[in-house]
Amino acid sequence: FAQDIRLFNVQDNFITRYKKLWANLFSARKFLNRKQNFVTNSLSLLPQVVILFIAYIQAINVMQGSVAVGDFTLTIELSQQLSMGVISFISALAMIYENRLRFNNLQEFQNVRNSITDGIIELNEPIHSIEFVNVSFRYSDEEPYVLQNISLRFDLNETVAIVGKNGSGKSSLIKLLLRMYDPTAGLITVNGIDIKDYTVKSIRKQFSVYFQNMQNFPFNLRDNFLLSNNNYNEYENLFDKDNINQQVDNRKMSASNRILRYESKMYEMLCKSSSQDILKRSPKGFDQPITKMFESDGLELSTGQSQKLALARTFYREYSVLILDEPTSSVDAEAEQTIRNTVHHLSNGKITLLVTQKLYNLNVANRIVLIESGKIVEQGSHEELIKLGGKYATMILLQNEK
Hints:
Layout: H1 2-8, H2 11-64, H3 69-110, E1 129-137, E2 147-155, E3 158-163, H4 170-177, E4 185-190, E5 193-194, H5 200-204, E6 207-210, H6 221-226, H7 232-239, H8 241-245, H9 249-272, H10 276-280, H11 303-316, E7 321-325, H12 333-346, E8 351-356, E9 367-372, E10 375-380, H13 382-388, H14 391-401
Parallel strand pairs: 3-8, 3-9, 6-7, 7-8
Antiparallel strand pairs: 1-2, 1-4, 4-5, 9-10
């Protein structure tokens, strides 16, 4: 927010808000400390009062001659030792109570259970069909439905564009497909089997997804690619220099060749997303850190460059279903054309879903699905929907006029 703060001159307002928030937090902390100190001091004072009472009784007994002076001294010393033990015990209880308060939030978080139940079937083959059967969904019982009676099918070698206004339910459809949520009603099948019957890990392994405004990891370029793939640990061992140096020459040569092959694929995907200039700007090559979060020499990327790198990572992953949610929202026209060509090339032998509001990007789609208020209102090819003269045709007309 540095630019906004300077431009709108709101630093005084932010400082005032911060001081007000800090005052509330400090007041709550001060009340808690006052309460804790009162209880601790009161409990610590109690043993001293008891010792004084015992000393008073014993002093009277000594004066009356019923207790020897040595017994009086022994009683006082034992009482003091007991008092110190009680005070230490009380202090330990106070510390335990304070630490317990600190861990309450963590404990509540750990007690949260995932509402997505895992299936038992491992999906070890590519996905060739996906079908939504009368699917309805809402995020909670108190909220309205964001999807209603969706019936839709995606097949191999098909590129489907899912279009609609903001809040129409497009992203929710993708979340259901990735099992981030389960449908409130209806059924989703993958290769003819209920998606809930598959293990979550195996079903997600088949997808490569570019989420809208997707962020890159603050690690080096190589790790950004490897973390996007399904066999990261296998690749990581290859790039471990200590591991390579310990291998005999022939195995070392094999590992080096594999590293070159992986890096060649990384560079190819950078080119396919029109982001090869990022590598050219990187003094350390694929070892170049992204952002300065962990490394002072990290490379800061623009919004468009970050999006293109995220797309390169998406293309790099092994998948049978490619999902792209607004993949060209921040890139220039030349890069946008390159990405469209890449999507067209990579869609062969795959299922490709494009979630977008840019209707002029739909020339790569075999079929267009228009969603409005959580319902499918139109479906067909670009030519069929234009001929239909419905809402899609109106949206195209408005865009052309714009």
